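Dear Dr. H.,

I hope your travels went smoothly. While you were away I took the liberty of generating a structure for the chain from your last submission, since the lab meeting agenda had it listed for discussion. I wanted you to have the full record in hand beforehand rather than looking at slides cold. The sequence, exactly as received, is reproduced here:
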Amino acid sequence: MASSEAFSFERCRSVSFSEGAGEYVCSLRPSLSSSLAHAFSEGRSRCRRAGLRPDATELYPPHITVTGFFAATTEEAAEVCTLAEKELANRCRGKGSTDGDPLVVLSQVLATEASGYVLVAVHAPKVAAFADVLARSVFASAGVQLRPKAVQHVSLASSRSSAEQAQIQGIYQNLPVLGVGAWDFVVSRLLERSDVKQLEECGRAHRFQELLRVPLQAERLAPERRPFATPPAPCTASCAAPAASALAAAVAATATPLKRRLSAEARITPEKKVQRLALQACAFAQPTANSEPKSLPDALLPQDCFLPQWRPPDMRA
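The corresponding predicted structure, in token form, is as follows:
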């Protein structure tokens, strides 16, 4: 079932109320083109691809019921829209968009044993209070009886077996439908009814005309995607120097030190080597009968042998 065939809406901000009496309903619906709307649409598509047959919940767009269906003339419906806008401005609109407690939160996907329902639990006490106030205001002003709802769930499926319920739960639990999503308050008129047979055979669902759509709550960014409040300051030479010093100290404390060439004072030739060189020097300098004492050659004192204030002993004494 293609989503474009499932719901045919005549969307408009307001209409000329001259078409006679009809059936109307107030509900919350995902904002148009929002990620929440796409998630619910994807959930229904995955159910079809999984071979699950459609049921009565799919005769309606994804929604949270605020009131039951009510009969009204076009003038009475116009009054409902006017009062709804007024009460929303006073009680709800804009208060759940960014900061503070959200107006609508979807918490978990549940299954009921009695009638085979699969639901998404909803927490929206302020919207439920708004529905009660709207019902009293409409009755006092126009004499129309509204039936306010508890605003506690989104219906995903009905009349399902336990196995089908588990399958549908798994599909929606893997979609981004939970949490704080974008919701609009909608007053709509039912233009044409359908049934499950028509839905299954040709994808025909109930057809609605929107009379009023008021943004109620915007989507919120996940914490890890929330932008910085202020951009980080650029790093300058004055702030880089302490960081470089700290890094150098940390490396010196953990790294193996390099071998360093000793100073001249520290590079003293070992004692045994000194003695050996001294004996060689004495043997070389020992005079013979026909020779003069020889001077100590530089070759016997290599450049890496340092003998501070050392002189060969006088072996001739």
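Two observations you may find useful: Confidence is low (pLDDT under 50) at residues 1-18, 221-236, 293-311. The longest strand covers residues 207-217.

With kind regards,
E. W.
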